[in-house]
Design goal:
The protein has 795 residues and is mainly alpha-helical. The chain is 63% helix and 5% strand. Strands 1-2-6 form a three-stranded mixed β-sheet. Strands 3-5-4 form a three-stranded antiparallel β-sheet. A hairpin with a 6-residue loop joins β8 and β9. α4 packs parallel to α7.
């Protein structure tokens, strides 16, 4: 080349940068090339630095270098692309594919690619590169067909994995060399794939063309998964790399996942059908839970995350959904009987996994079928408890233990699921009322025992918890009026005989009943407590009245004045009282009637008690006895022996009651026999003689002689229930009249419907019809003369 022209440094502040080239010079990169631009900058920079140095040493102003452009634009040679590709880039591509050395550096190769792209040869370069890659990939995949029959499954899969790894590594290297092509031509082209995607497309193309290779790989992977399900160990990295091939080339869902799920479905369908028949339910549930866990781990280790849901659904469907009823019929009752909470919780969790689409032919989900089994179990076991008449004394304790067990199931195993809670409530209501009225009576008796003993052997918290559980049973009872009748009967005995362990505890139970059933339910019970409190005030006034008399009585009297409508009704029995008792009774009657005009007192002797001073040869004793016992003992102040007939004549006590009274005095515990019976025996005959026991002795001064308590007979219970039924008739009559008074005219079916809504106690349509007929006879209502199925109210 010729020498460059002498630089001119004009005084103007602007400068033009350029260069010149002779016609016969070899082609050089244009001014737009990064290399030419850099050289131009260096050329400018050197004079500029020299100028600055000169200015620093002299006072002359700086002059600028002017570089003029070429006179003729440089031209590319005709074979520029072919020579660059054949001599340089093709060799580099072959070296990458064959893993051999290349004579060019990466920078030189990158520069060649950039030069071709800047001179508009990017499409030809892209096509040439693709063609070379296709030739190489086609050759490599074709090679995989030849050793397919000689290598083992794992060795063959490792060979395919090596081919894929080499392909990915080669495409990454080529992507680095042809990076400028990827970042310029591919980005701006729109439809052209990136070099990496081009490599995947090529691999997909020839993998599909050689379908036997793909099928062999899929079959090998399925075989390895099957071996792992049987307990063998496999190479997870190998399988995961192979599945990445299908994911990368877009064949995972269509070619692998479909076959994988079909194989899995067949495997677990056969396994479920076999194991559900041979294994116990707890073992089978543990196996299902383990299988689900294994499949989820398999997804994390080797499979695509998108396979997790269909895979787990397949396992759940074949191991659970297809065998829900079989599992429940075979083992649910056993799990409940053996109190296996963990297994019940596992069963609940597994059934919760089943999709709503997995339902039986009735459309019921797994949880609904499990709820039905739970309800049937509760009813069956509960009915056995309630209907066992030999264990009536233990019924409430058994029901409380049973309810605690079921509540534990509901809380721990069923996670307080609302449908299971409703099933438990409905089942309890069903079997508790199977024996009409008996559970209500026994619950009242159970509460009576608690209130008599108090917290003996229990803490306050335990006692409160027990009462709360009993009230839960009370909620399930339909005949709450039966409970009220018996509870009132037991309460009267606790209050009159002072057998209640705690007044506060009585009030607590009363508050619970009031909260549960309303104020109308406890109105009479509260009236009983009020009568006891008022009686204390009356007796205080009476004692002050008696103490002011000139001749006070030797008998100390304590009276409970009871309101008839509050307390249980009892038969009025007249007996022949001693004169001392008659006198003090009349004194109290006169006192009471003088202060309460218009009231009439009736004495209930069966509930009376006495404290007698008894003088025996061996010392004086205080005898705590019933009124009947006291009346009998006072006869022996006049004589030392009497026949049964004489005692019966002088006391007027009913025969059977007198016999029990005499037996308690003469045939009870040896330490309480104040009378002697002749002849001795467990029964009292009309000819038996009773003699004052002169040799009676006791270590205590005050001796309690218990009357013989007889268990409530069926007749007495029937009487109590009959009174309740009679009150129900009154309530039904009142409800009918109330409804008809409001409606005036009403059809029979509508009236029956209204009664079922308003009446809270159990009743039958026949009972309602009977009460309607009674009101028709008594002219409270009448039939419509134009419609015999309709009633009219008569004012």
């Amino acid at each position: 080349p010729r020498q460059p022209r002498k630089a001119m440094f004009p005084r103007s502040k602007s400068a033009v940068v350029g260069s010149s080239m002779p016609d016969d010079a070899s082609p050089r990169p244009t001014a737009s090339s990064p290399t030419s631009i850099a050289n131009a900058k260096d050329a400018v920079r050197a004079p500029a630095m020299a100028a600055r140095s000169a200015s620093a040493t002299s006072a002359r102003p700086a002059r600028k270098l002017v570089i003029r452009p070429f006179k003729k634009q440089p031209q590319l040679p005709a074979q520029f692309f072919a020579e660059t590709w054949d001599r340089c880039l093709r060799q580099a591509v072959h070296a990458v594919h064959n893993t051999t050395a290349v004579s060019f550096s990466y920078e030189q190769l990158y520069q060649k690619v950039e030069d071709l792209c800047r001179h508009k040869f990017a499409p030809e370069l892209y096509d040439a590169l693709r063609l070379e890659c296709e030739r190489h990939v086609a050759l490599q995949i074709t090679k995989l067909k030849s050793p397919g029959q000689t290598l083992g499954n794992v060795e063959y899969l490792a060979l395919v994995d090596r081919c894929w790894q080499d392909h990915c590594s080669q495409m990454l290297t080529l992507g680095s060399i042809f990076l400028f092509l990827d970042r310029s031509y591919v980005i701006h082209s729109g439809r052209t794939r990136s070099l990496w995607d081009m490599g995947l497309d090529i691999f997909r193309k020839y993998l599909v063309q050689n379908i036997e290779v793909e099928n062999r790989v899929v079959a090998g992977i399925l075989s390895l998964v099957g071996r792992e399900r049987e307990g063998d160990s496999i190479s997870h990295p190998l399988v995961k790399n192979l599945l990445r091939i299908f994911t990368a080339v877009g064949r995972y869902a269509s070619h692998f996942e479909k076959q994988f799920l079909e194989t899995t479905d067949l495997y677990y369908r056969n396994e479920g059908s076999q194991l559900v028949q041979t294994n116990a339910v707890p073992a089978y549930l543990c196996h299902v839970e383990q299988r689900i866990k294994q499949e989820m781990e398999r997804v994390m280790n080797i499979l695509d995350i998108r396979t997790e849901k269909p895979l787990v659904d397949c396992v759940e469907h074949n191991l659970l959904a297809l065998h829900v009823q079989v599992i429940l019929d075979k083992g649910f009752d056993t799990l409940c009987d053996e109190n296996r909470r963990e297994d019940l919780a596992r069963l609940y969790r597994l059934f919760a996994r089943i999709d709503k689409a997995d339902q039986d032919e009735t459309g019921a989900s797994a949880h609904e079928l499990m709820r039905d089994s739970f309800m049937r179990y509760v009813k069956r076991v509960g009915a056995e408890i309630v209907m066992d008449t030999e264990k009536d004394s233990e019924m409430v304790d058994l029901l409380l233990a049973y309810k605690a067990k079921l509540d534990d199931f509901l809380r721990f195993a069923f996670e307080d699921n609302a449908i299971f809670a409703r099933a438990l409530k409905e089942a309890f209501e069903s079997f508790v009322n199977m024996r009409q009225n008996v559970p209500a009576q026994l619950i009242a008796k159970f509460i009576d025992n608690i209130l008599r003993t108090g917290n003996k052997g229990f803490s306050d918290e335990q006692l409160e918890d027990t009462l709360e559980k009993v009230m839960t049973l009370f909620r399930y009872i339909h005949g709450k009026d039966i409970f009220e009748a018996f509870y009132k009967k037991f309460l009267s005995k606790r209050l009159l005989f002072q057998k209640s362990a705690s007044h506060d505890l009585e009030k607590t139970v009363l508050a619970k009943l009031k909260s549960e059933c309303g104020a109308a339910f406890t109105n009479k019970l509260e009236g009983m407590f009020k009568d006891v409190d008022v009686s204390k005030d009356i007796m205080q006034a009476f004692n002050q009245h008696v103490s002011g008399r000139s001749r006070p009585s030797e008998v100390e009297l304590n009276v409970y004045v009871l309101t008839t409508s509050y307390w249980p009704t009892s038969a009025h029995v007249e007996i022949k009282l001693p004169k001392e008792l008659i006198d003090v009774q009349e004194t109290f009657r006169a006192f009471y009637t003088s202060n309460h005009k218009g009231r009439h007192l009736s004495w209930l002797h069966s509930g009376g008690t006495c404290l007698l001073k008894a003088n025996f040869p061996l010392g004086q004793k205080l005898l705590d006895v019933s009124l009947y016992q006291a009346v009998v003992l006072l006869l022996f102040n006049e004589t030392e022996e009497m026949t049964f007939a004489d005692v019966l004549d002088q006391t007027g006590i009913e025969g059977s009651e007198l016999r029990r009274t005499l037996l308690s005095l003469a045939s009870g515990k040896p330490s309480t026999r104040v009378l002697e019976k002749r002849p001795k025996g467990p029964t009292v005959e009309n000819t038996d003689i009773f003699v004052f026991n002169k040799d009676f002795e006791h270590k205590l001064r005050r001796v309690k002689i218990n009357a013989i308590q007889i268990k409530e007979t069926k007749e007495e219970n029937q009487q109590t229930q009959q009174k309740v039924f009679q009150e129900r008739d009154y309530l039904i009559d009142a409800a009918i009249v109330r409804i008809m008074k409001t409606r005036k005219v009403m059809a029979h079916s509508q009236l029956i419907g209204e009664l079922f809504e308003q009446l809270k106690f159990p009743h039958k349509p026949a009972d309602l019809k009977k009460r309607i007929e009674s009101l028709l006879e008594r002219d409270y209502i009448e039939r419509d003369e134009y419609n015999p199925h309709s009633y009219k109210y008569l004012a």
